[in-house]
Structure formats: C-alpha cells, structure tokens
Design goal:
Blueprint lengths: L1 H6 L5 E3 L1 E2 L4 E2 L5 E5 L6 E6 L3 H18 L4 H30 L3 H21 L7 E2 L6 E9 L2 E5 L7 H12 L3 E5 L5 H17 L7 E4 L3 H9 L5 E5 L2 H13 L3 E5 L4 E5 L5 H13 L9 E7 H16 L19 H17 L2 E4 L18 E4 L15 E7 L2 H9 L3 E2 L1 E5 L3 H8 L8 E4 L11 E2 L2 E2 L6 E2 L8 E9 L15
Parallel strand pairs: 1-5, 8-9, 8-11, 9-10, 11-12, 13-14, 13-19, 14-17, 16-17, 19-20
Antiparallel strand pairs: 2-3, 2-10, 4-5, 6-7, 7-24, 15-16, 18-22, 21-23
The chain binds nicotinamide-adenine-dinucleotide (NAD).
GO molecular function, one term: aldehyde dehydrogenase (NAD+) activity
Organism: Chitinophaga caeni
Pfam family, one: Aldedh
Length: about 500
C-alpha cells in the first residue's frame, strides 16, 4: 500500500481543497483517514474553511464561462482521456478504495471499472445531447428545444462508493458543459484526492483552466454550505435519508435543484418457482457484499412458505462458509464495516430486533483477535422477523439479513413495498405471470425492479435511483443527463407576419 500512497503523494497531512492542479491553503479542521482494514492512520487531510471554499467556487464560476464554450464532443474527448487515465490507474485506485473504505479488492476494482464505463458512456453522450422539434401552430414558424448547461454542479457523496458516485455525476455534468465541485465523504478523503490528481493531469494536458473540477474536503458543514449556496444551481447528494431531507429542504428554500440518491431497504421475493441455487447466490452476495454497506444491499428476503424451510437451510449453510477478514486478501468474502460507529449501529440493531421478537438463525457479533484489531469486522447474521418491526422498516448499513414468509404474491408485493424506502427490488421466479405482475404498475414501487437478479449491483447504462425516501433522483445511464441541463424552448418566426399564438388578434 505504501507505494500506492506515494504514487498519489498521500503522506502526512494533505491539503483538502483543490481547483484542479492547484491545492489551496485552509485552516479547516484536520481529518484523519483511518483504514478499517487495520485500524491505523493512513494520512491526514486539511478540511476546507469558508475562505478556501469560496475561492474554489469563484474558480469554478470563472471556468464555467470557458468550459461551456468548448463544443460538447470536444468535452467528450477530454472525458475519454480521463477514462484512459483511469484504466492506467485502475489497479492502484482500486486497491486504495479497498484499503480506505474496506470493501473487497474485487469490489474496489469493480468500482473503478464503473468509473471507466461511465466515461465511455459520457463520450457517446457528448454527441447526443439532443432535444425535440415540434410543429408550430403558426405559419412560417419553427419550434424546437435545446439543452443548455446549468453552471456549477455540487456533488456530495457517501463513503460506501467513494469514487464511482462522483464519476457518475461529474462525467455527465462535464460533457453537458457544467463545472463540478465535489465534497466527498469525510470518511474517505484520500480516494477523492487520488481522483482529483488523475483528473487534473488530463485537464492540464488539454490546457483547460483551473476550476472545471474542484474538490472541497470537509464534514457536514461543508455540505451545508453547498446546499445553501445560490451559486450552485444543482446539488446532487448521495447518502442517508436524514442527510437528503436536510439538503432537499435547504436547496428548495432557494428554489435550486437537487438530485437525491438516498437509503434503500431492498428485498428479494423468492417464489415457489424460483431457481433456488441462483437465488442463493443473489441473496448472499446482496446481503454480505461490501459488508452490507451498499445502498442496494439485500436487507429482506420474502420467501414463499412452500420453499421457506429449504431455502433458509441453504442460506444458513452458506453463511457458515463465509470467510471474513482482510478485504485485500481475495480469499475473503466479507471485509470490515467502515468504522466503530458503524459497528455500534449494527449491534444496536441486533438488540432492537431481538427486543421486537426477531429470532436469529445465524447470530451476529464482533470479531476479535489477530487480523481483527481495527474492531470493525462483524459477523453477517440472519434474523426471522415480521415486516412491520420498526427495525425492519429502517436501513441499518450492516450485514443483517431479515427473512420472512408469504403465502400469496399479492401479499409478498405488499410486504416488499411496505417500507419507507424505494430503491431496489427483485423477484426470483421462472413463472412469467409472477414476473410480469411484479414489474407491472401494481408491482414493485422501487426505482429498480429485477427478475432473477439480486438487488445489488447495477449497470451504468440504466438510470439509477429510487422512489419514496430514497429521494427520487436518477443518475448514470438512460436520459439521466437531463438533470444536469436546463431545457429551453425556441420558437422562430421566418415569415413576414407576426401571428400570435392561440389565434389572438392584436392590430395596431
Ligand atoms: P451520510 O448521509 O452520513 O453522508 C453522506 C454525505 O453527506 C457525506 O459527504 C456527509 O458529509 C454529507 N452530509 C451529511 N449531512 C449533511 C447535511 N445535513 N448537509 C449536507 N451534507 C451532509 O451517509 P453515509 O454514511 O456516508 O452513506 C451511507 C448512506 O448513503 C446509506 O443510507 C446509503 O443507502 C446511502 N447511499 C445511497 C446511494 C444511492 O444511490 N441511493 C448510494 C450510496 C449510498
């Protein structure tokens, strides 16, 4: 790891505010980035203070005037080069993600791959930012719409996807002609600094002015400055529902736009016609992958009574084979939680579940001893519950899987929808009628609904996001780019008269 830290010059205390290649002085609080892998300090980062934050915003405002004048396909070419640079840095950045955040090395590499994929997507998009044309009701008139950039896009991101979420936002925002200011999670500042360095090199090589890509490291206060800041027309915020409610209210009070990607409480319905072996892989990876710290992690299994016992016994058996330990060791399935606060939340949820009547089929607990010195390694556990329990209605960001029984598909869909969140959902079935009912307007109420795939892990080509307390935002593929632009309707009169719309007569 030492050589990777040196490659990105991540030693001592690093500056935390940047406008590209420049790193600004600040007097903000120093943040220690501790690895949950071994519990040791990796490096420190100086948070933004108000003066350095304002300097970054001013740099972004100036850069916007130049960046928006560059044709979109040319902006796409620069994003293509960022993708190339990420390909070269995939190994180093993926390892750093794994070490700073604690996800498995495979998932660290997968996260960087997702960044490369969104770069490719954005390059194609840079030639397809098209609007519609309409027939005017007036003779000699033409009507069409075009999409213009917004200005500064503020990106607030969570710790669990410390780099990919930024790239989903920034690569699209850039080809759309915006400039970006990124506040990463204070729990994963070093991976953000590494991304900033990779990107800044490409912008500098293309003579792009400072300010197109800005980084402001800090805690909640810096996020709040962004939410309040009228100079940021769009704030894209990923994190807890608590954070989203605060950002949404603040941004709405100044009539700005927000794009919210918040918590999930994702379920898989396992029907009598399910392929149980396939369902097992989907359920176990969904529940324990990233130690249950994905917004799309599988939190609930809703299992038909006819296959309940058979499936639960497979599940318990599979949990017995999980290897928990250093995420950089590819033999392990499950790494640590992000920090000891997350461990406390996990333990509290287990207690609350028991108090409400939950019966643990696989017990949880914190691992101790050699290799577990950070205190962040926990056992994935399974509890038999009822959907209405308070704790089941709540997203605990840890590997606790709730299982419950159903009799009819209507009942299963009602249980799946019967939580405040609406991110990802899945049904395991080989029965076409059941699958179609699940996908119909009377089926899943989530932003993502899968058939014979688990809830976790989405492709960048689709629009990603969820309903209800998940916030309603969509990022990444499909036409999610429209959130980063403003629509303008243009009517052009090429006749020698000025007829008014709706046939109104106004003669002088
Ligand atoms: P968090 O809400 O604690 O923090 C997320 C980010 O918001 C951080 O950068 C934090 O500093 C900032 N923040 C916190 N309070 C703020 C406020 N009042 N104003 C402005 N900024 C504020 O979340 P976390 O623990 O880092 O991440 C886990 C959560 O993120 C889970 O709920 C998970 O489901 C969610 N998440 C959702 C998605 C999605 O796409 N739907 C993706 C990843 C994570």
């Amino acid at each position: 790891m030492q050589n990777i830290l040196q490659q990105f010059q991540l030693t001592g205390t690093h500056a935390g505010v940047s406008t590209g290649s420049s790193w600004l002085q600040s007097t903000g609080q120093s943040i220690d980035s501790m690895s949950p892998v071994d519990g040791k300090l990796i490096a420190g980062v100086q948070s933004a203070d108000r003066a350095s934050y304002d300097a970054a915003i001013e740099s972004a405002q100036a850069a916007y005037l130049k960046w928006r004048a560059i044709p979109a396909p040319r902006r796409g070419e620069i994003v293509r080069q960022i993708g190339e640079s990420l390909r070269k840095n995939k190994e180093a950045l993926g390892r750093l993600v794994s070490f700073e955040m604690g996800k498995s090395l495979q998932e660290g590499f997968g996260e960087v791959q997702e960044m490369i994929d969104i770069c490719d997507f954005a390059v194609g998009l840079s030639r397809q930012l098209h609007g519609l044309t309409m027939h005017s009701e007036r003779p000699g008139h033409r009507m069409y719409e075009q999409w213009h950039p917004l200005g500064i896009v503020g990106i607030i991101s969570a710790f669990n996807f410390p780099v990919a979420v930024w790239s989903w936002n920034s690569m699209l925002a850039w080809v759309c002609g915006n400039v970006c200011i990124w506040k990463p999670s204070e729990k994963t500042p070093l991976t953000a600094i590494a991304c900033q360095k990779i990107t800044a090199e490409v912008f500098a090589a293309n003579d792009i002015p400072e300010g197109v890509s800005c980084l402001v490291i800090g805690g909640r206060d810096v996020g709040e400055w962004m939410a309040q800041d009228k100079r940021i027309p769009l704030v894209s915020a990923t994190g807890s529902t608590r954070m989203g409610k605060s950002v949404a209210a603040t941004v709405a009070s100044r009539l700005g736009k927000s794009l919210l990607e918040l918590g999930g409480n994702n379920a898989i319905i396992i029907t009598p016609d399910a392929d149980l072996d396939m369902s097992l892989i989907g359920a176990v990876f969904g529940a324990v992958g990233t130690a249950g710290q994905r917004c799309t992690s599988t939190r609930r299994l809703i299992i038909h009574e006819d296959v309940y016992d058979a499936f639960v016994s497979k599940l318990v058996n599979a949990y017995g084979q999980l290897r928990i330990g250093d995420p950089l060791d590819e033999n392990n399935h499950v790494g640590p939680l992000i920090d000891t606060d997350a461990v406390k939340a996990y333990l509290t949820s287990i207690e609350e579940c028991k108090a409400e009547g939950g019966k643990f089929l696989v017990e949880g607990g914190v691992l101790k001893g050699a290799g577990f010195e950070s205190g962040c390694y926990v056992k994935p556990c399974i509890a038999e519950v009822e959907n209405h329990y308070k704790i089941v209605q709540h997203e605990t960001f840890a590997p606790i899987l709730y299982v419950m029984k159903y009799k009819t598909l209507d009942e299963a869909i009602a249980m799946q929808n019967g939580v405040p969140q609406g991110l990802s959902s899945a049904i395991m079935t080989t029965n076409l009628r059941e699958a179609e009912q699940f996908l119909s307007n009377a089926g899943s109420d989530c932003g993502i609904a899968n058939v014979n795939i688990g809830t976790s892990g989405a492709e960048i080509g689709g629009a990603f996001g969820g309903e209800k307390e998940t916030g309603g935002g969509r990022e990444s593929g499909s036409d999610a780019w429209k959130a980063y632009m403003r629509r303008q309707t243009n009517t052009i009169n090429y006749s020698t008269h000025l007829p008014l719309a709706q046939g109104i007569k106004f003669d002088l």
